[in-house]
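Dear Dr. H.,

I hope your travels went smoothly. While you were away I took the liberty of generating a structure for the chain from your last submission, since the lab meeting agenda had it listed for discussion. I wanted you to have the full record in hand beforehand rather than looking at slides cold. The sequence, exactly as received, is reproduced here:
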Amino acid sequence: MKLLVSPINTEEAISALNGGADVIDIKNPKEGSLGANFPWVIRDVKEAIEGKRPISAALGDFNFKPGTAALAAYGAASAGADYVKIGLYDVKTEDQALEMMTGIAESVKGMDIKVVACGYSDYERIDSINPKLLPAIGEKAGVDLVMVDTGVKDGRSTFEFMNEEDLVEFVNDAHARGLETAIAGTIKFDDIPALKRIQPTIIGVRGIVCGGDRSTTIKQELVEKLKSEI
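The corresponding predicted structure, in token form, is as follows:
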């Protein structure tokens, strides 16, 4: 399993890099679960880490706006991202999700970019699409990775909304279709044994390496601890 850590600036990115993160995921928590940061932050982080790790960029928690999403993906890729990651937050149907993800995949075609479709474990409380539908949708759309996160950041974990069996089903379905997988959403150190059993490609974190409060600062020693445990 790889460790994805989500910094908001170059200083945090360096802490994540030095702590052993495998993917540096640029986001802006002030704008939501997958809040988008500015293109110059992507460029600055890419320069600061000197290409030592791949860069992921969150595009936002989206409603059904395929054109806007495709343009955002193209912008993040042009700014230097290696992964573009969109949250299907207010996307309610399989057809909507397929149109969104197909457009994003097409927008970065030929750019050597990995496309990530993210659903939410707490989909019922935000009235969003069931993330267990994403592997089939992602395969049709031509994405590279499907992910589960939490839409509402109130301290409740993905494991409170999807049990281990659900997550194993999600991961196995995606892997059988040739897609990579990621699990995020208020991951705690106590969740590591379950994640080792589930075996997603990537574990995505922020709060746990900030000491439990995602609005504070990433600490290198916590990245090191998490990396050693996984």
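Two observations you may find useful: The mean pLDDT is 96. The longest strand covers residues 55-63.

With kind regards,
E. W.
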